[in-house]
Amino acid sequence: MQTFGPIMPIMKFSTDEEVIKLANDSRFGLGCGVFSGSQRRAKEIASQIHCGNAAINDFATSYMCQSLPFGGVKDSGFGRFGGVEGLRDCCLVKSVVEDRWWPHIKTMIPKPIRYPVADNGFTFQESLVEALYGLSIWDRLRALVNVLKIMSEQNSSSTKRRSD
């Protein structure tokens, strides 16, 4: 059973890794408060604790700010209330996809990732993502060249198979 507090357990520890392990060794994860003389250190520790809310050098203030989402993880994970995420918890999200072009033009799955997936399918997909979201223009261009190369190899191999 989860204690509903707020309570503030105080425990001795030797290393940051030890205190993170202690905090995460629970079925519950509603919130945490991390206190430290170093703001950076407290944020680093809080980022590794599995919980729904974290307060740095404070305790339970995340509940007082009603515009923030509030809720836990693990056995404390029953969704969120408060904030935009609280409203989203009351919604049913559904993705609907359809072709928006002319009735006879259908979206085509590129041959390298069409079933059965080609040997270079993973490389193709990885290059495609890099071409769209790469960090630099050069990364994107290099990936685009790789995508086009794989596509041309696929097209030439399927043309050879048809002529055989």
Automatic annotation (TrEMBL):
Pfam family for this entry, one? Aldedh
Native source organism of the sequence: Rhizophora mucronata
Tell me the superkingdom of the source.
Answer: Eukaryota
Top-level taxonomy: Eukaryota, Viridiplantae, Streptophyta, Embryophyta, Tracheophyta
What this protein is called in its record is Uncharacterized protein MANES_15G004800
Q: Where is the Aldehyde dehydrogenase domain?
A: 3-96
Q: What terms describe the molecular function in GO for this protein?
A: oxidoreductase activity, acting on the aldehyde or oxo group of donors, NAD or NADP as acceptor
**Sections of the chain in a coiled coil:** none
